[in-house]
Amino acid sequence: MIHKTAVVEAGAELGRDVAVGAFAFIQAGARIGDGAIIDPHASVLKGVTIGPRSRVHGGAVVGDLPQDLGFTGGDSYVVVGADCMIREGVTIHRGTKPGTTTEVGDGCFLMSNSHCAHNVKLGKNVIVGSNSLLAGYVEVGDRAFISGNCVVHQFVRIGRLAMVGGASGISKDLPPFCTTKPMTVNQVLGLNVVGMRRAGLTPPERSAVKEAFRLFYRSGLNVSQALAQMKPLFPLGPAAEFCAFVEASKRGIVAWCGQDEEAAE
Fold first, then answer.
1. What's the pTM value of the predicted model, to 2 decimals?
2. Domains in the chain, start-ordered, CATH in brackets?
3. N or C: which terminal CB in the chain sees fewer CB atoms within 10 Å?
4. pLDDT one-digit tens code per residue, 154-200
């Protein structure tokens, strides 16, 4: 299962039924899970763990040094979960401080030439579109969708089931279940209603999220006033998750774009 031209250094750990293609490189200290595929010309460097059944396509580099002027060396890591797809040209950099980790959750799909910088944390089943760039310490919730050619500023949080519109920029936190307007900066368009349905949110849960969205974005209240009204109304469930995300924000929350919310549903 290892092509004769591949380089697998002594000290690399390969599980059962791993396939390594032509001219691939696996450095000492890398760990490849059972059934994983490392395609031709892919590189998996030290400190990287690739989960079972994941695939790293040609030209991808997983575990290179962080692009951070504050990086001073030391051991840091990348952990890629099970059943992930890392397509051509993807780059995933390891943590910038010793002992820290860049994390890609189970079932993630990173499309061609996308980038996860140092200390990024992706939840489960996240999709990152082609050529999208996630800066250092970005956190993305489960089943979020980042469309192609997006840029996400360092330390930004993107909530669960959120959707970032194509070619848009995000420098503030995007709450769960929300969508951004394509080709804009920090503009919320509406709710990811289709995504919520597919994720199994019940009609009452979706209605509660919609009301939380209305209170926060369309009632004319400021953040403190909106939270004061929302928190007693939504003590549990996805709407409470929306409130908690907003309350925990340190960078501020992306703004309402001013268009009719129904357009995004």
1. 0.95
2. 7-137 (2.160.10.10), 196-264 (1.20.1180.10)
3. N
4. 999 999 999 999 999 999 999 999 999 999 999 999 999 999 999 99
